[in-house]
Backbone:
């Protein structure tokens, strides 16, 4: 086998939560008289990590409202309400099951807060497929590269393929010394993802072809 482990991002890769994220931040923008995000396409062009910089670009004034203590908690509350209607990305369950049948290890490394991450994985019915689940200890959605580095130190001989939907996933894979495939049906546009020079897929089931 080319790989021993497949490492998954969560938001936008496993969980099709773009609409929930947009509705939530638009509610906050409306309340402050700021321009809203008009479409998923526009959102995918402007979304980036760390999330605090994405908020800054949307016009939020951190001198008036703290990102950490006001805006991030407000967004999480709205997101948890709207994400109840969100589902798995098309083809994810089939792909995860196929990878399990191939005998490869699978883990999730996410910038989502760990408790939230575990709850959603269980709600979606896929938690049991993963050997390990790593998330942040806060809701601020900063970098997850330290989690990836920690995982790599625990698995020094693993041959890794990371699957994600943002350029931050490309950075995360690089810090692990692993290969990376990017999915353009998530939080960032195909153009942004292709700029990394990495392979980009449109359907999650295409991932299997890279494992052979």
Residues:
């Amino acid at each position: 086998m080319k790989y021993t482990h497949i490492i998954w991002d969560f938001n936008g890769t496993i969980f099709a939560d773009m609409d929930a994220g947009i509705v939530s931040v638009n509610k906050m923008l409306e309340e402050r008289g700021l321009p809203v995000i008009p479409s998923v396409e526009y959102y995918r062009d402007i979304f980036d990590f760390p999330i605090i910089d994405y908020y800054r670009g949307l016009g939020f004034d951190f001198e008036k409202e703290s990102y950490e203590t006001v805006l991030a908690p407000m967004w999480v509350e709205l997101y948890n309400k709207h994400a109840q209607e969100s589902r798995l990305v098309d083809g994810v369950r089939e792909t995860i099951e196929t990878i399990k049948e191939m005998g490869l290890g699978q883990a999730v490394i996410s910038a989502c807060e760990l408790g939230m991450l575990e709850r959603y994985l269980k709600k979606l019915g896929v938690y049991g497929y993963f050997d390990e689940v790593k998330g942040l200890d806060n809701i601020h959605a900063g970098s997850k590269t330290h989690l990836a580095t920690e995982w790599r130190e625990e698995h020094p001989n693993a041959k890794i393929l990371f699957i994600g939907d943002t350029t931050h996933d490309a950075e995360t894979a690089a810090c692990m010394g692993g290969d990376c495939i990017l999915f353009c049906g998530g939080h960032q546009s195909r153009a942004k993802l292709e700029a990394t020079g990495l392979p980009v897929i449109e359907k999650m089931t295409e991932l299997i072809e890279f494992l052979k």
Observations:
- Strands lie at 5-8, 15-16, 87-88, 105-113, 132-136, 160-164, 179-183, 200-201.
- The chain has a mean pLDDT of 94.
- Residues 3 and 159 are 5 Å apart (CA to CA).
